Structures are given as C-alpha cells and as structure tokens.
Amino acid sequence: MTEDGDDAVVRRDRFSGGPARGFISSLAGDERIFAADLAVDRAHVVMLAEQGLVDDGDAAAILAALDEVAAAGHDALPDGEDVHEAIETAVVDRVGPAGGRMHTARSRNDEVAACLRIRLRDDLLDAADAALALREALTETARANVQTTMPGYTHLQPAQPTTLAHHHLSYESALRRDVARLRDAYDRTNRSPLGAAAFAGTPFDVDRERTAALLGFDGVVENATDAAAARDFLVEAAAALAALALTCSGLAEDLVGFASRGYVELDDDYASTSSIMPQKKNPDTLELVRAVAGDAVGALTGVATTLKGLPRAYNRDLQRADPHVWDAVDAVRGATGACAGAVSTASWDEAALADDAGDGFSTATGVADALALAGVPFRTAHEVVARAGTADAEALDEAARAVLGESLFARVDRAVVERALDPAESVRARDSHGGPAPEAVRGALDRADTALAADREAVADRRDRGDRAAAELAEVVDGYV
Ligand code: ARG
Hints:
Blueprint: H1 6-14, H2 21-24, H3 34-50, H4 56-72, H5 83-95, H6 108-143, E1 149-154, E2 157-163, H7 164-189, H8 208-214, H9 224-229, H10 232-260, E3 264-265, H11 284-307, H12 322-345, E4 347-348, H13 350-356, H14 364-373, H15 378-388, H16 393-404, H17 408-411, H18 414-421, H19 423-429, H20 438-480
Antiparallel strand pairs: 1-2, 3-4
Helix pairs in contact: 3-4, 3-6, 3-8, 3-20, 4-5, 6-7, 6-10, 6-12, 6-20, 7-10, 7-20, 10-11, 10-12, 11-12, 14-15, 14-18, 15-16
The structure holds arginine.
C-alpha cells in the first residue's frame, strides 16, 4: 500500500468488475444528479478544509479538478459504479492520490442521499410552478365565465345547472392542495444527510451545519442512520405528484367529454388529427394528461414497493427507488404544463353550454328547494317534483295537487317557480359560501388570486434560497482555486 492509499483504489477495482458490472451500475441514470453531486463534493471539500481536515492546497487542487469535471460533463466521466465513484476517479486522475482525500468523513450513502434531495427539491419546485400555471389558467377562464351557465353532472347525468367558472374553480381548489403537498414535500426533502457517513457517523470533526448551509438545506437530518437510510422523502414526493396527476386527469377527462359534446374546442396546438379521417380533431393532449396519472400512481407504487421491508441501514435496493420518482416528476410536470396550455387556449361555446344547462330537468332540485323554502318539508317537496318529472309549471302544479292536496301556487308564487325553472336563475339562487352564484364565485376568485400570489411567493422564495446558496458556494470555492 502506498502512503496515500492507492491500495484502496486497487481494492475498489477488485469488486464489481465482472459480468454484472453493467447491471449494478447506475452511472447512466445518475446524469440526473451529476450537478448535485458536484455541489455536494464542493461543499464537503470546503467544509473539510475549514475544519482543517484537508489542507488548503489539497482542497484547492480537488476543487479545481471538480471544475474541470463539471466543464467536461457527465458523458466524459470515466467508468464507474455510479456518478459518485466516477467523479472521484476523475478527480484522482487529475489530482493524484491526494484527490482521494475528498472522500474523507463521508460515504456514498450520505452522498447519494444528499444528491437526491438536492435534485428533487428543484424538481418539486418545477412541478409546483406547473401547477401554479394551471391554477392561473383556470382562474382566468373562470373570471371570464362567471355568468356562463352550463350543465353540471353527477354520474355523468345532468344534475344541476352550474357555471363554467364554478367548474374550473373546483379544480383550482384541488390544485391549491396539490401545491401545498408539493411544498410540504419540499420542506421535508430539504434537509442535509451529509456527515452521516455510511450510517454510523464519523470520528472526524465535521461541521454538518456548514455543509447543510453551503448547499441551501434548511438543516440536517440528525440521526446518522436515518440520514443514510431514509427515503420517505421520495415516497412523499411521489404521493404529492400522484395527487397532482390525479387532479389533472379528472380535469382532462372533463374537457375530453366537453369537447365530445361540442361545448369546447381545443386550440390546434393541443389537438391532433386522424391519419385517415380528414374531419377529425381529437383531444390527444388531454388524453395523455389523463394517462399520466397512471404513470404517477405506478411510480408511487414502485418506490413504496422498493422500500417495503428494507432493513437498516443502507441496501443497494435504494438505487432503484429514486428512478421511479424522476419518471413521475418529468411526466407529471409535462402533463400539468400541457393541461395549463390546453385550458388557457380553449374556446368555449357559451351558447351551447347555456342551451343544455337545463337538460334532463336539472332544475328539479331548485324547484324542490323553492317549495322547501316556502315551508314544505324537503322530502315532500322532493316527492312533488319527482312526480311531475318535467320542467313544466303546470305539471308541477298537478303533482302538488296530488301530493299536497292543493295548488302549487297556493304555496309558492308562480314567478318563483318560473325562476327556479330557469337554469341561470337556478345558479343565481345558489349563493351559499362556495356555491356557483356569480356573487359567491367573485369572492372565490379574489381568494384564488390571493392564494396564487402567496404560493408564487413561497415557491420563488425557496428557489431564491437555493440560488443564493449556490452563488455563495461558488464564491467560497473561488476563494480556493
Ligand atoms: N449508486 C448508489 C445509490 O444510488 C450509491 C450508494 C452506494 N453505496 C453503497 N454502499 N454501495 O444508492
């Protein structure tokens, strides 16, 4: 063994060089965390130098080599089991054995966990931004359609008249929770595992808070075994992404249905034609949005199944946990962005929506409500309207005579009944908090704007903190090289 530990390199090469090398290597997929690993290496080396664990000359040489490795790019890395090993090899190739000091007081276990958290936090913010864009698109369409009466459905049957604004704001509300879940996932992801080493800490006098701060983490994952082993942040991210994808899938399905009924025409950018049927304009983009929910739920299942029953502390199974989440992040972010584009460019046929708003006697509940407001027990009012079975004042009167033993108009003004039978009036009457009446929806729109601005700020603030940490790390590194 040479003084600087060449033997360790030789020993490392003794393993994983066989036919399974390609199987166990994650190097190709690790491109996703290439930049994160360089940041982790830099912060770690700076901390080691500040703590006097490597001298400034070695730190400077390693940091300069890392700059070269960064400039050459992931594709230029030497072979390795993973990006961590390959970057270390590239550094040692440039610096000589002293490059091996980079791996003092750490393990690939805390290293990879740090890389995943750094990459994922950015991905989560990107997903949140896509969801915010969709919220904005929905809110804008809603604002322009507060009075656009349309059929509302349960069981895909006409149920009660509503408005396009109220429909869209229902998804905006769900997306607010989806963004809150992404923000929560971010906050628990953004903790540094560095300094945990393999799982059992290190005898070196490391400053875990310093590496955490240099990398823009909000703090450390304290317990070293937890820090190395925990991947629940991946589960949480996958779950938040799946919830977002499920929201988008429902919206996409509604829009596909509305397009089929001629209520909405998608912009050409979000539609496809048929290779054989020249007249076709199909909502393919939204169908793919709908399908991505399957990818996301599959990813959640994949990551959870990979983690189930894993013993402490580190097991190589973990290498196959994060790819599920990367797939989900890319698919869900793309789907959410496409959905936002489709929503913001769609043209609605307001007349067709209004024409059909009363279809299937969808004003029936409003008539029963009017009777109940006049003092008839709701169940009896329900019976009267059910017996009439049609949006016709005379038929309702006949039913009232049969059920109540007197004319409907002895109980309610004819004008009240006529209003209840009008879809737009039916909507106006439902002005309860959260209801579709234009007045209620205007209040909801104001709150949607306020919530959107607050979330935008929260996301931008997290992004800024990350950017500031990156700039500070670059400056500190510049002080060495
Ligand atoms: N590529 C590995 C992963 O993603 C890095 C950690 C390897 N650690 C180990 N003890 N074999 O998990």
